[in-house]
Amino acid sequence: MFHLIFAVPSFLVIARWLLPLGLPLWGKTALGALLIGASQYHLGCRLSSGSMFAPEFPRPVVILFNWAFGAILLLAALQLMLDFGTLVVILVLGKIVVEPEGLRYAIAGLAAVLAAIGVAAALRVPPLKDVEIVVHGLPTQFDGYRLIQLTDLHISRLYPARWVRAVVERANAAGADLIVVTGDFIDGSVAMRRADVEPLRQLHAPDGIYAIPGNHEYFFDYPAWMRHLGALGFRMLPNAHAVLSRDGADLVLAGVTDLSAPAAGQAGPDLDLALAGARRDVPVLLLDHQPKNARDAAALGVAIQLSGHTHGGMIRGLDQIVARANGGFVSGRYDVGGMTLYVSNGTALWPGFALRLGVPSELTRITLRAGR
Question: pLDDT by residue (tens digit) across 285-322?
């Protein structure tokens, strides 16, 4: 059923864009077959690795499929817009109007170009984005404290070791006191991704490297990934906390598991457990992969929540739909009951739909400021 749903845009393109064209039957048949084949990219991923979340094709093939799948989606949207515009013209003029064939070719070209731009934007090593967050009650010793947030790395055939190495170099050069990763490290098993994640071992910061799992870690043998990430130097915080100290002052760094954990037979997010034994008179910085529970965190007195998961919505306009599925949160800074929620657009993307238009990836450097 899932793969049939993914075929719907290609069926729309065939019915509303391809069939009216003046191409010979063999040309329409061949192009229609290509459209349906590209729409089944995720089925191909599943056949290649056993999971639709881990395409095990050569990287150029993964890039090509992402471009083709994105172009189909964009062409379907543009064709619907063209049909709507034609309908309006018909209603205004009171007579049948036929969409010019040249216009059909034009929107196909536009969809292809936009998809190429979107894939290129998705593949880049993200630039550094600076964000300042004022924290009321932050000890003066932590005023100016800097941390790097990485999230949604989705290390895979699309984001291999050389890309990871470039991200690590940029993160290390940012001069942060702390580095955190808010989930979705990988797409693939430990055996499939062992070499690609190895550059993460080189991450370093004075106060350490902390992380939490995202939903994708639960798709690929969660216990094995937690052990492997720990061996790479990450201090994992699954419903746990750590205390950061500076010149006699403390800051609590807490983390929770992902909402998808129970479906994989693992413990779901439990902020009460994460904060058990933590001082309540110092600010709490929470790592939670998904932002939708931010209001609950605010009610428990969390000062800052860092999240990812949404990828910022990936495409301007689509972000509003993504926000509705995530408690109204999709990208950037939010004031939630006195707590600051920051939702990163993500360092990378799921290789099953790697397209960014108007929603850039980011490597976030957050500076904490003491509030008065």
Answer: 999 999 999 999 999 999 999 999 999 999 998 888 99
Against a cut of 0.85, is the pTM above it?
A: yes
| Residue 227: domain span | 128-371
- In whole angstroms, what is the distance from residue 176 CA to residue 25 CA? 61
Instruction: Tell which of 77, 104, 123 closes a domain.
Output: 123
CATH number of the structural domain spanning residue 309:
3.60.21.10
Of the candidates 282, 281, 371, 289, the one whose C-alpha atom is nearest the C-alpha of residue 335 is 371
pLDDT tens-digit map of 249-263: 999 999 999 999 999
Distance CA 42, CA 66 (A): 10
Rg (CA), the chain: 23
Q: Are residues 179 and 75 in the same domain?
A: no
Which are the contacts of 256, defined by CB distance < 8 A and separation ≥ 6? 212, 237, 238, 239, 269, 270, 271, 274, 286, 287, 288
Report the distance separating Cα 283 and Cα 136, nearest Å: 8
- The answer on 133 and 105 residing in a single domain is no
| CA torsion through residues 147, 251, 304, 326, sign | positive
Distance CA 129, CA 148 (A): 10
Q: What's the rounded Cα separation, in Å, for the pair 162 and 164?
A: 5
- Residue finishing a domain among 60, 88, 123: 123
